[in-house]
């Protein structure tokens, strides 16, 4: 292993690799640094990966330690940061799920890509005692895997530690677009629209502020996911699954769920964050009408709530179609959505 031990965290070197998308004929070469820990004595999910397009400049980085994000421009959105989904519990859905999107973003060889880097974060998961192949129950398994025992607000805490590492790599306010899929969308909106103190995380630094937030097939109103009206007829059969994984991720006391739900944030408080420059002015919400896991009502509720926020532009995107996982599995939809956001941001300049 070429990694070197340092201060209880690992330094990871840039290496040449390739990523694929089912929608592209050929693998796309990239320069990547994978699984960079963002906290001392990290568990196996407290890390992030960075992907760069393969260019003469980035080739020169291969074999050197990944310590900065090349191509950051102050105040210009040149970076995408992504948070994966998986119901806060699926160990098979990781930061690598952004790779098909990376392939689309960096497939135009010779042309300079509109963004300079894509970072993708892992975070500690919650228990998943009923996973068909990889079940984990803290009591039965005698706490052998802390990387699968998170309870809210640990997911937010991990994500903020990850953004703090990216800040030390050069990420600044306005220099990136933040995307999240499913529970990753929930985590992004939780972490950016409310300050750390909302979760009792006052000891953590606030995140660098993204230029825009993109929610993809996201979960935004947790109490509604366990009610008949919230789920609707099409998704009513998922009630017990939702109740199980939301209880594992947020605690069984459902009185704590509203404060953790982006669709229930106080619009006046979010407006104050926007006014002070501590939250983005643009939010794009993507929701596939054919999503078999997330009811479209989740997006409707968040659109309605965030439309009450003075100074915030809320746009319903139309790039996501097909099943719940299609956006990250195929990559092209997420990349189209990021490009839409870059265009919307340009219009505002
Ligand atoms: N394979 C996943 C399914 C899943 O991710 C999921 C299921 C229902 C509603 C939302 C989901 N994902 C959100 O992150 C699981 O069962 O953990």
TrEMBL record:
One example GO MF annotation: arylformamidase activity
Classification via Gene3D superfamilies: alpha/beta hydrolase
Superkingdom of the source species: Bacteria
GO biological process: L-tryptophan catabolic process to kynurenine
Record's keyword terms, sorted: Hydrolase
Record InterPro entries: AB_hydrolase_fold (IPR029058), GDXG_lipolytic_enzyme (IPR050300), KFase_ver/fungi-typ (IPR027519)
PANTHER family according to UniProt: AB HYDROLASE SUPERFAMILY PROTEIN C4A8.06C, KYNURENINE FORMAMIDASE
Stated name of the protein: Arylformamidase
Organism: Umezawaea tangerina
Lineage of origin: Bacteria, Bacillati, Actinomycetota, Actinomycetes, Pseudonocardiales
């Amino acid at each position: 292993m070429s990694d070197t031990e340092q201060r209880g965290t690992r330094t990871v070197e840039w290496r040449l690799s390739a990523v694929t998308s089912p929608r592209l004929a050929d693998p796309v070469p990239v320069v990547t640094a994978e699984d960079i820990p963002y906290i001392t004595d990290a568990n196996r999910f407290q890390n992030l990966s960075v992907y760069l397009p393969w260019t003469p400049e980035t080739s020169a980085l291969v074999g050197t330690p990944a310590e900065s994000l090349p191509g950051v421009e102050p105040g210009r959105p040149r970076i995408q940061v992504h948070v994966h989904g998986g119901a806060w519990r699926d160990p098979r859905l990781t930061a690598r799920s952004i790779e098909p999107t990376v392939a689309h973003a960096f497939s135009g060889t010779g042309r300079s890509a509109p963004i300079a880097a894509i970072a993708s974060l892992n975070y500690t998961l919650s228990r998943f005692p009923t996973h068909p192949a990889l079940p984990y129950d803290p009591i039965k398994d005698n706490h052998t895997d802390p990387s699968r025992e998170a309870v809210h607000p640990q997911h937010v805490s991990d994500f903020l530690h990850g953004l703090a590492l990216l800040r030390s790599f050069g990420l600044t306010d306005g220099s990136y677009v933040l995307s999240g899929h499913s529970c990753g969308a929930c985590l992004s909106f939780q972490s950016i629209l409310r300050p750390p103190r909302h979760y009792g995380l006052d000891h953590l630094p606030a995140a660098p502020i993204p230029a825009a937030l993109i929610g993809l097939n996201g979960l935004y109103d947790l109490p509604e996911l366990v009610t008949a009206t919230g789920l609707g007829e099409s998704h009513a059969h998922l009630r017990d699954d939702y109740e199980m994984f939301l209880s594992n991720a947020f605690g069984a006391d459902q009185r704590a769920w509203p404060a953790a739900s982006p669709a229930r944030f106080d619009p006046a408080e979010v407006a104050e964050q926007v006014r002070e420059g501590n939250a983005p002015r643009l939010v794009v919400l993507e929701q596939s009408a054919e999503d078999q896991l997330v009811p479209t009502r989740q997006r409707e509720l968040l659109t309605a709530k965030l439309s009450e926020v003075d100074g915030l532009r809320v746009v319903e995107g139309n790039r996501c179609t097909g099943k719940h996982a299609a956006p990250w599995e195929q990559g092209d939809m997420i990349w189209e959505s990021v490009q839409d956001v870059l265009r919307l941001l340009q219009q505002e300049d």
